[in-house]
Every structure is written in C-alpha cells, then in structure tokens.
C-alpha cells in the first residue's frame, strides 16, 4: 500500500513532492526546515528556535501517518554551519530518544536561509 501523507501540522509542499510518503510499513518524510505550518512563514531565529520548529513539523508528519518519534529508524540532518552542531544535537537528542541511525552534514546553503533541515524515515 502506497499513500501520500498530507497534514496541516507541517508546512505544505512547495514543489513537486509530498510532505511524506507511506510505502508499506515505511514512512519517508521530506526534509523539514523551520516553517510554521499555521502561517506558512519561515521562523527566522537561532539554531534552537529553528530546530524546535523542525521537530514540531516532523512530529506532525509522523502523527498524520500514525507514527511517532520512536518509529524513526534513520535521520539525515543538514546544518548550514557545523559550529551549531552541539546546540543542534542537544535539542535533537530530546526528541529522538530511541537513537535512530543518523547522518549529519554541513550544507553550503539551505532553503530560505535555514540553519538546519531534517528528513526522517520511520518503520512500523
């Protein structure tokens, strides 16, 4: 069973992609940046503020598909500046207590000048 997941608890897709895609028992979530889904505006703030918004967006996507943070098996994280790694990591570890596999890389630039972006894969 393949199904596009759409929710108002995460930013709308602004291009030719889905917010998330459920394929069998695996959920693939598109990368999330700090966009407030209520206003569709970018949350311009420091790494803490942006990371917290990203995690709210991810939670919304996961819940829309019947998943939770505990179901996440892999994350890919992008940081605009690796100097933010320790602060980012401290916030990240509060949400991902199950310690999924992770890649974290520096990106030269992220959409809307974001400081971070996270994409997740979850399995039931």
Characterization of the model:
With 124 residues, the protein is an alpha+beta fold. It has one domain: 60s Ribosomal Protein L30, Chain: A (2-Layer Sandwich), CATH 3.30.1330. It is 23% helix and 33% strand. It has two helices and eight strands, in the order E-E-E-E-E-H-E-H-E-E. It has helices at 47-64, 85-95; strands at 2-5, 20-23, 26-32, 35-36, 41-42, 72-79, 101-106, 116-123. It has a six-stranded mixed β-sheet, covered by helices on one side. The chain is globular, with a radius of gyration of 13 Å.
CATH topology group:
60s Ribosomal Protein L30, Chain: A
Number of domains: 1
Question: What is the CATH C-level name?
Answer: Alpha Beta
Largest sheet: 6 strands, mixed
Task: Classify the helix fraction into a percent range.
Answer: 10-25%
Strand content: 25-35%
What is the CATH superfamily? RutC-like
Q: How would you sum up the global shape?
A: globular
**Which H/E pattern describes the elements?**
EEEEEHEHEE
